Amino acid sequence: MLLLSCKNQKGITKVTQEKKPRNILFIAVDDLRPELNFYGSKHIQSPNLDKLADQSLVFNRAYCNVPVCGASRASLLSGMRPTRHRFIDYSTRADIDVPDAISLPKLLKQNGYTTIANGKVYHNGKDNVSSWNSIWFPEGNIRNYQLEENIKDNGNANLAVAGATAFEMAEVEDTAYFDGKIAQKGIADLKKLKNKNKPFFLALGFMKPHLPFNAPKKYWDLYDRSKIELPESYLQPESTPKEAFHNFGELRNYGNIPKQGDVPDDLAKELIHGYYACVSYVDAQIGLVLDELKRLELEEDTIIILWGDHGWNLGDHKLWCKHVTFETALKAPLIIKVPGKTKGQKTDAIIEYIDIYPSLVELIGIESPKTLDGQSFVPILNGETPEKDWAVSKFKDAVTLIKGDLFYTEWTKDDGVAYARMLFDHSTDPLELHNLAKKPEYQDTINQLAKDLRIKWGEDFLNQ
Length: 464
Hints:
Blueprint: E1 3-7, E2 13-17, E3 23-29, H1 47-53, E4 57-63, H2 69-78, H3 94-97, H4 104-110, E5 114-119, E6 134-136, H5 148-154, E7 167-170, H6 178-194, E8 200-206, E9 213-216, H7 217-220, H8 249-252, H9 265-295, E10 302-308, E11 313-314, E12 320-321, H10 327-330, E13 334-337, E14 345-352, H11 356-363, H12 378-381, E15 390-395, E16 398-403, E17 406-412, E18 418-425, H13 443-456
Parallel strand pairs: 3-8, 3-10, 4-14, 5-6, 5-8, 7-9
Antiparallel strand pairs: 1-2, 4-13, 10-13, 11-12, 15-16, 16-17, 17-18
């Protein structure tokens, strides 16, 4: 809120409000990759996301700082970069890794915002609880099966599924699954917030398309599986270091997935089908929330930001899930709608997820904490060219520098010494199939990128 003081004709100082504070609708979508119409992919039906993109600034090159849900969310919401020992895996809690940091919702709460978290915002619902005026999550098993056989096979398992299938197609209403409930809770909150005199930060964390790929049948019916194809990059080249691949244990937990080896082609296409259905399902739920925001006449005073917590491998490099530093796991959807500023623009500027926090607080006129590592992208909204043209992402030992068309990864030990390297040039190899790191003609480039990486990963990278 920006307050101006002035004196009236009688010399009495009067405080006036220049403009009403902006609300923020903060939409997180779990495991959403940028395989969407506004990114050039024409086969997924997501009309509500497409409509929002037409009113927003679309970031074509937004990268998460760590491709695993808990760590990615902790980094984004604290505005701090992962280090060697900070923000590591799905179980990461920001209030443990950076207990003195002022989270984005906490800063807003301190500045008069009503802060609400519905669904999966932080990975752990107990993380940074003091940042929120209220926290809500649907009741029930996290896997959220609706078919009796799957409920029985799943039992009480949450993280490790004993025998249930990796997908489900059920003849149920949208509100049977968690995301339908999260949307309805968001709509109810908007109605309550409408008549309050305080700005709000309403965070909605949607669960799909995270595994298992469970969605109402009508969303599966949108797609013809006979037309679904495996990705062009459905191979693992010998030039790529073995460290770049994993056994996608997150998927193999499910009872209908083989424990070793490639996923059979027919099953792979069924998984892709389920992923598409889940994207269409969550798109419909987000659409309901956006329609209500407009109906309540809150649209013109609300910044909307939508992001996926990381990318996702959908058979790319014969991999599934995240947990790698290929672009398929690092690049994620990011769009922001700012009333009066955005109207469907797109930018190829390289953005890191730690840039989101300083950008939002600049847009609403609040000073950023000094602990933030990111850089505001507001200049892009104003039509300017950003100063920063790089990003750094990491997963466990792998650290990646993204600079221009070059994607350079080192696997390093605690002392920072590399034991494997990977370099792709996206201008000639967008699918990342030809590792250039061992080619003699690229050694000068490798040496320079190695120096740049060590500068840009932060001075505390090895120590914290």
